[in-house]
Amino acid sequence: MQYRVLGKSGVMVSELCLGTMTFGNTTSEEDSTTMIHDFLDQGGNFLDTADVYVSGRSEEVVGKAISGRRSDVILATKVRFATANNVNHVGLSRKHILDGVEASLRRLKTDYIDLYQMHVWDQITPIEETLRTLDDLVTSGKVRYIGCSNFLAYQIMKSLGISDHNRYARFISNQPQYSLVSRQMDREVLPLCIEENVGIIPWGPIGGGFLSGKYPRGEAPTEGRLSSKAGESSWMLRNSEKNFRILEEVLAVSSEIDQTPVQVALNWLIHKKGITAPIFGARTLEQYHENMGAVGWKLSTDHWNRLDTVSALEDDYPYRFIEKFKREV
Question: Where is the NADP-dependent oxidoreductase domain (predicted)?
Fold first, then answer.
C-alpha cells in the first residue's frame, strides 16, 4: 500500500480508502469488522463513513472495530442529510453541525474526527455560518480537518475564498462521484481541486458495480445498486452505448493483463492525476479482497491511455475553444 498527502495538509492517507456505507446492513458486523482489521493490517489507514449510513449504524460498527487502533486510522465521516424527522435536524446550520458532530463522536466512540465532510451543499444556510462552525470545531480539537462532498466547482471555490479571507480552516478534500463511466468532474471540479491543492477521494469508482462486467447489454439487473430505479448508480444512467464501449475496453485490458475488470477500473483511477484515494465499498469478503487486488501494480502507459481515451468527455464548448487558444511556455 502506498501513501499520499491529503490535499493542503500534512496528513498521509493510503491510496485506497475503505468505504463503509453497507456496514451493519447488507454487510454483517462480523464481516465489516474483518474487512476493517484486514485493511489496517495490509497498510490501509483511511476509512470513510457518514452519519446517515444505515441510520448511524455504520459509524457504530466502525467505532467498535477500530477500538484500540484509533491513532492508526484517518477516520472520515459526514454531516448534512436529515438524521431525524425534525425541521432543524438537516442541513449545514451551526445547530445541525454541532448536534451532528456530537452524535457521530458518540457512535464512533472517539473524541475526535480526522476528516469531517459536508455531504452536499446547503442552499439555505449561509456558507459563512457553516465555515465558521467548522473552524470552531477544528480549534476545539473535535475535528482535525474538513472537507466537502458533491459540491459544484463554484461552491468549492467560494468556500475556499471565504476560509482564506477569514483565516478559517479550509477544505483539504473533496469527495465527488468519479469513475471511468462518470467523468463529469473533468470539466471544472478536477482542475479546480488540482489548482487549489484539494485532495480528491472519489466515491463510486466502479460505477456502482457496472465496471465489474457482470451486467450484459439489454439485461437490467435484479439485485445490487444497479437494480435501483433511482440514484446515481441506477441502470437508467449506466445503460448507455458509450458506457458499454468503456466496459468493453476494460474487459479487453483485463484479459490482456490477467487482472479482474474491477481491479483494472480501480487501478486506472488510482493513477489518475489529482486523485488521492478512491473510496471502495464491498458487501462481501470476496468483493473486498478483489478490490484490494487493485494495488501493488500499475497499468502500462498504453493500457491506461486506452481506458482514458475511451472514457473521455466530449470536446464541448467552451472547453474546445479555450484549449484552441491555450498559451504554454
Answer: 15-310
